[in-house]
Amino acid sequence: MRALNPSAPFTTFLPSTLSRGSKTQSLLCLSKSKSKSTVHFDFLASSSAAPFKSLAPLRYSVPACSSEDLSSPVHDSSAASVVSSSGKSLKNRLRDGETLYGLFLLSFSPTLAEIAGLAGYDFVLVDMEHGPGGITEALHCMRALAATRTPAILRLPETSPVWAKKALDLGPQGIMFPMIDSPKLAKKAVSYCRFPPAGIRGSAHTPPAGTRGAAHPVIRASKYGLDGDYVVNSERDLFIMCQVESAEAVKKVGVISAVDGVDCVMMGPLDLSADMGYLTDPAHPKVKEMMADAEEAVLGRIRSRGSGAYLGGFAVGNDDGLGPAEMRSRGYHMVCGAVDVGLFRDGVVRDVNKFKEAHKMSQ
Asked: 0.90 exceeded by the pTM?
């Protein structure tokens, strides 16, 4: 049996010897060689039996990390650049001409978020504007989505630097600003997502403990400071969406879509119809006409200049019978066709009605 090296950087002793009747169990020791990345298992003979309750505490030591170790990311990408199961980011997939299909998550249920990711949605939009949850609840959903490699987009309750800062620190792949009515407000939204001098985003920089290395943000988005490239890559990787939800905004949507840093203009047909005085009639001809004008302003700019924000929208309430497939054919790049609570509502209603109908037929 190989002798233990007490100076090894990693040595763990499992619980002490156990006495079972007249038999004595050995002590299992795991040690990691300093020169080789291998783990050795050693069984030490015990001279005396010990009761189960006298467990030896775990003993281990971890070598100190240098500032050089913390200056490079521990993974290939930061939290904000997590790629989907396809292996590409949202931006890259859109540049390749794909139309992405997503789900709105209003329940703030990590379980439903996980199911949505496993189902194959291209992205899931966690709605902090109309959903009951806030930052903490959104974090739980984001962790569930990350496990399925599904990009998470956070919709803020309002367009403000405080909400943007807290949301961005969680490390979403995208962020959506509501009620963007002018290019000026769109520029402000972008500035909330960028560190100075390009913007006004706050930071939580601190140097690694026991080192004199560069300071990194100690937030989830930067892997709590372990991703030294986060500050450089965050602006490149983050997907910024601006919602156009009023008649005034539609008049300026072409200019809004041209604002540097805005990646997608998300049309809000329900709020638009309400703003126009047709709260219960989003398919009113005047609403449909204004939606068509907005679509052309965004798509026309891309066709004529080869640049500008992508077009996103909701399948529900956009038009009579206009579903996700029809929206894709009209040029939409990001389509949301369902809401988690709506899917659950419809499913349970069908289930209950099915039982009631069967019960009637049996009488």
From this structure: no
